[in-house]
Amino acid sequence: MPGPKRAIDLDSVDLFDLDLYSSGDPHPIWDAMRAKAPLHHQVLPDGREFWSVTRYEDVRRVLSDHREFTSERGTVPTHLGTDDVAAGVLLTSTDPPRHTEVRRPLGSRLTARAVKSWEDGIRRTVVRFLQPALDGETFDLAEKALLLPAMVTGPLLGIPERDWEELVQLTAMVTAPSDPHFGVGNEAATLAISHHELVTYVKDWVRTRRATGGEDDSLLHHLMSVRPGGAALSDEEIALDGYSILLGANVTTPHTVSGTVQALAERPEQYEKAQADPTLIPNLVEEGLRWTSAACNFMRYAVDDVRIAGGTVPARGAVVAWIGSANRDASQFPDPHTFDITRQGAKRHGAFGFGPHFCIGAPLARMTLRVFFEELLRRFGSIELAGEPQHLRSYFIAGMTHLPVVAQKRHTP
């Protein structure tokens, strides 16, 4: 929740200040930007510069229109100033039509209808995950939840359980290289090591599959049969796209889980409302996605000079679209700083992005979150915070490294 109103000097605001996200609150700043500087320009001390959009419609436009704003020089602000070497190959750093050709066959495996068959397995995984919290001891949800997506998606991707923990650590290093939990040396070293290790992992996986000739139904194996433009993907391309899928699978869901549970723990009346009426759970999930906005921004580059938000972004200028701000835009979400599981229109949030790069795993994430909250509400009468949450040091992923909670077992008559 935003703190007390204070005067904000938008000329001196540093949106890359990690303290703003780990121990501060960016929402008052985003509120001020939407009101007074919907196109905001910042120059970093090292000379790198970027423009920010914070209003819902502008964020949607930047992320939706690849002709005006390209993905092919990089899409995450941690890479600002260095063109993505994998541009045009890595799924996240590729524009249509190639992006569509690679994505479509993968997307067909991840539709709401397709993932429905995985629901029972996901439910068993969630029940296993929640089991340790039933004893009423302090349970660090944020720390434990980091592994939850791997428990869910590992079997679907074709990744053995022995590798889950290492891959979760590596994907966290990519997205929060400045956080002391995940850093190895400085930020650049952490990024280089984690990127190399993840790509190497997928390359080795592909090489082993080719050597053994094994067939399976996993998503990574499916990548080996994708043929954009009629040509098979090279091992390097499969490795980069596999890396992209691993990041997408592991990075945001844990923080949506812990951030939504924190919101419920702080508002027992909302918890009780969901418990009394389980039909509210799908909308609880959407409000949780809006509220937490775990992928708090994405970056694009202007192709030519672009007029937007009352100003101009020059050709080749980097534009950061702040999803965390768009999801609190009062023009779309009345009373946006109130967490309300009965909110009308919560599903319009941009937590999964917009346009061609809309999260390919959204149906799976939604189902996982729905099953998680169904099982949580079924098992626990109440949840209370048992200590101070610790926030991730990242201006890209909004989340927590620690959220100690105590859950009381539900006594049903």
DSSP summary: helix tally: 17
CATH topology: Cytochrome p450
Residues in β-strands, percent: 5-15%
**SSE order in H/E notation?**
HHEEHEHHHEHHHHHHHHHEEEEHHEEEE
Instruction: Give the averaged pLDDT, no decimals.
Output: 91
The CATH superfamily is identified as: Cytochrome P450
* Low-pLDDT runs: none
Biggest sheet layout: 5 strands, mixed
Q: What is the C-alpha radius of gyration, as a whole number of Å?
A: 21 Å
Instruction: Find the structural class using helix and strand composition.
Output: alpha+beta
Q: Globular, elongated, flat, extended or rod-shaped: what is the shape?
A: globular
Amino-to-carboxy terminus distance:
36 Å
Keywords:
alpha+beta, 413 residues, globular, three-stranded antiparallel beta sheet, 12 strands, five-stranded mixed beta sheet, Cytochrome p450, 17 helices
In short:
The protein has a single domain, classed as Cytochrome P450 (Cytochrome p450), CATH 1.10.630. Helices cover 44% and strands 12% of the residues. The chain contains 17 helices and twelve strands.
Description:
By secondary structure, the chain is α+β, with helices and mostly antiparallel strands. The chain has one domain: Orthogonal Bundle (Cytochrome p450). The protein is 44% helix and 12% strand. The strands form four sheets. Strands 1-2-8-5-3 form a five-stranded mixed sheet, with helices on both faces. A three-stranded antiparallel sheet has the order 4-12-9. The mean pLDDT is 91.
